[in-house]
Design goal:
There is one protein chain. The chain is α+β, with helices and mostly antiparallel strands. Helix content is about 20%, strand content about 30%. It is built from seven helices and 30 strands. It has a seven-stranded mixed beta sheet with strand order 15-16-17-20-24-21-25, with helices on one face. The chain has a six-stranded mixed beta sheet with strand order 14-12-10-26-27-28, with no helix packed on it. Strand 7 and strand 8 form a beta hairpin. GO terms for molecular function: acid phosphatase activity; metal ion binding.
């Protein structure tokens, strides 16, 4: 056998060419990417957020025609974001709020500057007031790897099935990973959905790194808490987003638990004063109060921190939400779907044996964390708890239709079964908390049923 001697000059030339092709870093791009929308609870508005790798002006051009010039302009600002990883990668996050939008009208837009424009996207401006029927996609725990539900969500979005998305914590797995490149990858993945619908969020435990810095920088939510807690109105519903994580990552400040609790109480008081206009109160937070999964998460413990508070006594949310009559509580964290019977303090409070979700005497809990991520699905305990109505260990997401002031429709879509509806319920509330002076009477207890007097909600 003849031994071939290497030609060192050829090897060097190949190495040089390889470095020239693959090793030279690309110049930072001014082209917008990771485009997404949010609604800052200002009627007639929509906020566009995107990323560039160099500082550029922040402008959105928009109009009503799908082709041709976009005659309307809006300017905004950008903020540099430096990830906490070892490379200290710098991104430029741009935010522009469009105002004066016609309710229910479809707009075409692009974002960027003369240094580079995004492709064109479409969105439909939210309708104003309480008298319409919003449809939402609801899920948590969606990763950059194994995002099982995303292709179907993209198709749903293209077909105009939703008015907004509620992402109930845990993004990308994790946005800070690989010096925040996983966050970039995730934001690009959701762009076909998030650039067409307001993508409303709350933080989960996977956002914790560097004091939730990637979450705070990349998403633009209402209020002044950097998206940790806020509320907004949508049709006949008042939606409250909050952070369960303040109860677990206390090294970022115990004061956040107290601040959020007092903000929640104040917001719930205002929401109850507005019940005649917006009868439904819906909350979204990442870690549930109850679950029947086979793990050691907080919701499997009787004295859950979210439910009972710090040390089982301070700033618990179950009593607060029950006191102010929260109707529907949306959760994630467990990589499965679970629907509970109306519940308070481990007791089932069904409206009746035949119609448990008609005038329920306690809040309805939905856990929807099976959109798909690298951690796969979470198994359930062998035997369901008495308060667990349905458990589904399949990839999927939830559809929420707030039909009017008395009817909410919930469906669970199974991606494992090619979009089959595996859960389908209606929640009916035919009475409203009335007011006696400044005291709010929660209508769930039977003593309040006779006092329901607001037109349209009488039994």
């Amino acid at each position: 056998m003849r031994i071939l001697r290497p030609c060192w000059s050829c090897c060097c030339l190949l190495l040089f060419c390889s470095l020239g092709i693959q090793g030279t870093p690309k110049a930072p791009s001014a082209a917008p990417e990771q485009v997404h929308l949010s609604y800052l609870d200002e009627p007639g508005s929509m906020t566009v957020t995107w990323t560039t790798w160099v500082p550029t002006p922040s402008e959105v051009q928009f109009g009503l025609q799908p082709s041709g010039p976009l005659p309307l302009r809006a300017q905004g600002t950008f903020s540099p974001f430096v990830d906490g990883g070892i490379l200290r990668r710098k991104l430029y996050i741009h935010r522009v709020t469009l105002r004066g939008l016609l309710p229910g009208v479809q707009y075409v837009y692009r974002c960027g500057s003369a240094q580079g424009w995004s492709r064109r996207f479409r969105f439909r401006a939210l309708k104003n007031g309480p008298h319409w029927s919003p449809r939402l996609a609801v899920y948590g725990d969606l990763g950059a790897d194994n995002p099982k539900a995303l292709p179907r969500l993209r198709r749903d979005t293209q077909q105009g099935m939703y008015d907004a998305v509620l992402h109930v914590g845990d993004f990308a797995y994790n946005m800070d990973q690989d010096n925040a490149r996983i966050g970039d990858k995730f934001m690009r993945l959701i762009e076909p959905v998030a650039a067409s619908l307001p993508y409303m969020t709350c933080p989960g435990n996977h956002e914790e790194r560097y004091n939730f810095s990637n979450y705070k920088a990349r998403f633009n939510m209402p209020g002044d808490s950097e998206g940790l807690w806020y509320s907004w109105d949508l049709g006949p519903a008042h939606i409250i987003s909050f952070s369960t994580e303040v109860y677990f990552f206390l090294h970022y400040g115990r004061h956040l638990v107290e601040r959020q609790f007092h903000w929640l109480e104040s917001d719930l008081q205002k929401a109850n004063q507005n019940r005649a206009a917006r009868p439904w109160i819906i909350t979204m937070g990442h870690r549930p109060m109850y679950c029947s999964n086979a793990d050691l998460d907080d919701c499997t413990w009787h004295e859950s921190k979210v439910r009972k508070g710090l040390r089982g006594r301070f700033y618990g949310l179950e009593d607060l939400f029950y006191k102010y009559g929260v109707d529907l509580q949306l959760w994630a964290h467990e990589h499965s779907y679970e629907r509970l019977w109306p519940i308070y303090n481990y007791q089932v409070f069904n409206g009746s044996q035949e119609k448990p979700y008609t005038n329920p005497r306690g809040p309805v809990h939905i856990i929807t964390g099976s959109a798909g991520c690298e951690e796969r699905l979470t198994p359930f305990s062998l035997f369901p708890r008495p308060w667990s109505a349905l458990r589904v260990k399949e990839y999927g997401y939830t559809r929420l239709h707030v039909l009017n002031g008395t009817h909410i429709h919930l469906q669970q879509v199974s991606d494992d079964q090619d979009g089959k509806i595996v859960d389908d319920i209606w929640v009916l509330s035919l009475c409203l908390p009335p007011f006696i002076g400044s005291k709010i009477i929660y209508c769930a207890p039977t003593v309040c049923q006779a006092l329901c007097s607001v037109p349209g909600r009488q039994p």
